[in-house]
Design brief:
The chain is elongated. The protein has a two-stranded antiparallel ribbon with strand order 1-2. It has strands at residues 25-30, 33-38. By secondary structure, the protein is mainly beta. The chain has no helices and 2 strands.
Length: 66
């Protein structure tokens, strides 16, 4: 009764898959020189994991205390 949220505020997370932003060019600075590279695929197609797996999602932007 004291919590500003209820069980209805939590939901199951949905997997949306990787998103291709269309970035194909990469600029790297080494020393005082800049080098440009172009890739046929996106260089950002990696998956990050912070070491935590939660079976629920709490959308903080949609949270409205009642």
């Amino acid at each position: 009764m004291d919590a500003p949220y209820s069980h209805r505020d939590f939901r199951r997370p949905t997997f949306r898959g990787p998103v291709d932003e269309g970035i194909r060019e990469l600029i790297v600075k080494r020393g005082e020189a800049y080098h440009g590279f172009s890739y046929p695929h996106s260089p950002l197609d990696v998956v990050g994991w912070d070491g935590a797996v939660y079976p629920f999602a709490f959308p903080i932007l949609a949270f409205q205390p009642g």
